[in-house]
Amino acid sequence: MPIFVIVNVTHHNSKFIFTDHYERLFSGLLKYYQGEMITGLLLLYQSEVIHLIECNKDIQYAVLRDLQEMEEQNKPLLEDVRVVVLSHNIPQRLFRCWNIQPFHVDASHWKTEQEEQETVQKLSAEAISILLRLGAQLGHHSKVEFKPALESLCKQKPELVIPREMLSALLCCGDLLRPTQFLRMYDRPVDVNMDLENVGMAAVHLLHMV
Fold it and tell me: For residue 143, what pLDDT band results from cuts at 50, 70 and 90?
């Protein structure tokens, strides 16, 4: 049951403040929801953060509420936050633990012209598919093994790296909701909630086709 969030941070140090914040938040949540697990991946790009979190529904909402509070308090470490997808229908976890990884990505050949032609649904599905395929390759590794495995894989298979230009395009997508907007949508009828999950499930189907 993953939630996939993209964050644009204000400066380099914000990434490490953000990381420390989540370590403390998850520690508190796991004490409250005893017996539950939080797994996933926190990738720290140069100024963007990708966060894929696998957890139960209650923890998902706690994470969104925490992001909402940070937005409303106008904390300086977050410049922009977009929820790409939240789903309750994933049959199994990709990761054995929660991994944090600084991640330097050079400029890619992913062009602005391509960005302009992509719909938000297609762009989101492409980003999710890349992340899921990366997770499928790395998820079985322990924390100790994870960093060298990630570095090696990204050199061998650069197609498993979400380009920074794609992240920037997603952060600029007005159709992708902020945490406050996303939580408001979940207070609406079931058919709206199902629509929010369609992009994520499309990406999951793509994963099984790889």
Answer: confident
Provide the edge-to-edge strand list for the sheet that holds 48-54: 78-86, 2-9, 48-54, 39-44, 98-102
45's CB contacts (< 8 A; 6+ apart) are: 103, 104, 105, 164, 167
Contact 197, 89 (CB under 8 A): yes
**Segment 92-105, tens digit of pLDDT:** 888 888 888 887 76
What does the domain layout of the chain look like in residue ranges?
A: 2-209
DSSP 139-177: TTS-HHHHHHHHHHHHHH-GGGS--HHHHHHHHT-TTSB
- Cα pseudo-dihedral 5, 78, 14, 86, rounded to 10: -10
pTM score, whole prediction: 0.81
| CATH T-level fold of 2-209 | Alpha-Beta Plaits (3.30.70)
Q: Determine phi and psi for 33, rounding to 5 degrees.
A: -100, 75
Half-sphere exposure of 14 (CA within 13 A, CB side): 18
CA angle 86, 50, 178 (to 5 degrees): 50
Any idea how long the chain is? 210
What pLDDT was estimated at residue 208? 41
The C-alpha angle 163, 164, 167, rounded to 5 degrees, equals: 95
* Nearest CA among 90, 169, 171, 101 for reference residue 136: 90
Alpha helical stretches, state H, 33-56: none
Q: CB neighbours (10 Å) of residue 3?
A: 26
